[in-house]
């Protein structure tokens, strides 16, 4: 089990911290850390403030990889902490160490799955929103056989996540992944496509044929755009899920089938249920676990990595680099089609690439450049550089947790002070880098210093 980073939030919690260090066998110096445990004696206002700073100010470990271990019960606080995104809140008890170990081991298994080539080489991006979705899928695949519903805008990678889930599922991956695009199912053939048919079941049925359910037996059935499934077919499919059995069209015999079900939709299925266009009982069957894929606007910091990946995929061994100006433009642009639209735009640039030097703005399609116009060009010139997207991710997460502007400023200043000191050879050099005097930096360093970690 990978070692966690353990922090005592109060001097009175130092004994609990030492117990965890001993029982979890944490070495004196171990990096990188895979998780973090915050230890508190009591959950008073100051402790909660420090927890918030620890969650929002960590640039490496997300809040979901943080545990809070505390001594004094405080029922009203736990809900607020979970809402902040903390991984779990564990009260001191006889079973506490076992609970902590089980949480850490599960996180380690999930993170190990994300490092596998089939995931790391195909699902590109390191933004918090995207990694959170990947972790949800990995946990579903490794520890549950429940049906999974993928939601989100078109072009956000729902099918890629479905394939990832199938590949990580230790049982289903031994069999087929069967994909059914529900938008292509006409009312006349939908039953046959799902359930199969017997010879002579309808005009043109010259021989018996297996449907998607039979083909997916033992594996995974992926229903893309499940919201398009006709109402009459929804009732029949619900029975398949309830009974784990189906009948071919034109047959009276029931056949058994067992499969992992994954569905995807860009519709609001709860709204569809309210309007009577989707069955409520089927919805709760297919949405045992849900995962919303983030839009490209929610993961702008991933755009440079995605662009490089798409260029390498299209260019093979002689893939060019993208110029900084092109990366800036692509990162600031709006994508109604999300990652799919970005991919097509990169391919269009590659088709105009002359074969020497980097891909540049001039490689963009004519219609893209012409659409700028005077106003568009000015707007792009004022757009933030691509690396500013990382700041956007951090600020967006902080605002969602009701972090005020003053507190946000303190957090950013503390991070700037810490990084400057880490990267500089002396206080004087760090102060010069930050544009302050050495005395001012000493004062800021003291103000930014968190709880004693030792």
From TrEMBL:
<dbReference type="InterPro" id="IPR058031">
    <property type="entry name" value="AAA_lid_NorR"/>
</dbReference>
<dbReference type="GO" id="GO:0005524">
    <property type="term" value="F:ATP binding"/>
</dbReference>
<dbReference type="InterPro" id="IPR027417">
    <property type="entry name" value="P-loop_NTPase"/>
</dbReference>
<dbReference type="GO" id="GO:0006355">
    <property type="term" value="P:regulation of DNA-templated transcription"/>
</dbReference>
<dbReference type="Pfam" id="PF00158">
    <property type="entry name" value="Sigma54_activat"/>
</dbReference>
<dbReference type="Pfam" id="PF25601">
    <property type="entry name" value="AAA_lid_14"/>
</dbReference>
<dbReference type="InterPro" id="IPR025943">
    <property type="entry name" value="Sigma_54_int_dom_ATP-bd_2"/>
</dbReference>
<protein>
    <submittedName>
        <fullName>AAA domain-containing protein</fullName>
    </submittedName>
</protein>
<keyword id="KW-0547">Nucleotide-binding</keyword>
<keyword id="KW-0067">ATP-binding</keyword>
<dbReference type="InterPro" id="IPR003593">
    <property type="entry name" value="AAA+_ATPase"/>
</dbReference>
<dbReference type="InterPro" id="IPR025662">
    <property type="entry name" value="Sigma_54_int_dom_ATP-bd_1"/>
</dbReference>
<dbReference type="InterPro" id="IPR002078">
    <property type="entry name" value="Sigma_54_int"/>
</dbReference>
<feature type="domain" description="Sigma-54 factor interaction">
    <location>
        <begin position="123"/>
        <end position="346"/>
    </location>
</feature>
């Amino acid at each position: 089990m990978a070692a966690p980073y353990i922090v005592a939030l109060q001097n009175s919690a130092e004994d609990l911290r030492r117990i965890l260090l001993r029982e979890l066998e944490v070495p004196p110096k171990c990096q990188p850390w895979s998780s973090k445990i915050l230890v508190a004696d009591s959950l008073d206002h100051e402790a909660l403030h420090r927890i918030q700073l620890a969650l929002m100010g960590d640039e490496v470990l997300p809040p979901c990889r943080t545990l809070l271990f505390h001594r004094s019960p405080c029922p009203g606080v736990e809900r607020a902490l979970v809402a902040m995104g903390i991984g779990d809140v564990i009260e001191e008890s006889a079973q506490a160490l076992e609970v902590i170990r089980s949480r850490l081991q599960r996180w380690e298994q999930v993170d190990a799955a994300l490092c596998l080539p089939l995931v790391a080489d195909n699902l590109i991006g390191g933004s918090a929103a995207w990694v959170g979705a990947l972790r949800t899928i990995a946990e579903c695949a490794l520890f549950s056989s429940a049906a999974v519903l993928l939601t989100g805008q078109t072009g956000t990678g729902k099918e890629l996540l479905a394939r990832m889930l199938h590949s990580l599922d230790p049982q289903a991956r031994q069999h087929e992944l069967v994909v059914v695009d529900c938008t292509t199912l006409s009312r006349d053939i939908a039953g046959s496509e799902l359930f199969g048919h017997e010879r002579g079941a309808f005009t043109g049925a010259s021989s018996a044929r297996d449907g998607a359910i039979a083909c997916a037996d033992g594996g995974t059935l992926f229903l893309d755009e499940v919201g398009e499934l006709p109402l009459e077919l929804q009732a029949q499919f619900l029975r398949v899920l309830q009974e784990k059995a189906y009948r071919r069209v034109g047959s009276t015999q029931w056949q058994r089938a067992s499969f992992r079900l994954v569905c995807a939709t860009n519709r609001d299925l709860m709204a569809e249920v309210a309007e009577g266009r989707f069955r409520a009982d089927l919805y709760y069957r297919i949405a045992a676990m849900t995962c919303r894929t983030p839009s490209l606007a929610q993961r702008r910091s991933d755009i440079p990595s995605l662009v490089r990946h798409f260029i390498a995929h299209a260019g093979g061994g002689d893939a060019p680099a993208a110029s900084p100006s092109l990366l800036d433009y692509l990162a600031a642009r709006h994508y109604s089609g999300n990652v799919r639209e970005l991919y097509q735009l990169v391919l269009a640039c590659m088709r105009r690439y002359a074969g020497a030097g980097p891909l540049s703005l001039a490689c963009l399609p004519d219609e893209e450049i012409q659409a700028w116009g005077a106003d568009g060009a000015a707007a792009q010139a004022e757009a933030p550089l691509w690396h500013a997207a990382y700041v956007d991710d951090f600020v967006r997460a902080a605002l969602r947790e009701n972090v005020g502007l003053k507190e946000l400023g303190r957090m950013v200043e503390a991070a700037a002070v810490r990084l400057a000191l880490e990267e500089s050879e002396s206080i004087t050099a760090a102060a010069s880098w930050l544009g302050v005097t050495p005395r001012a930096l000493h004062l800021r360093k003291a103000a930014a210093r968190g709880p004693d970690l030792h």
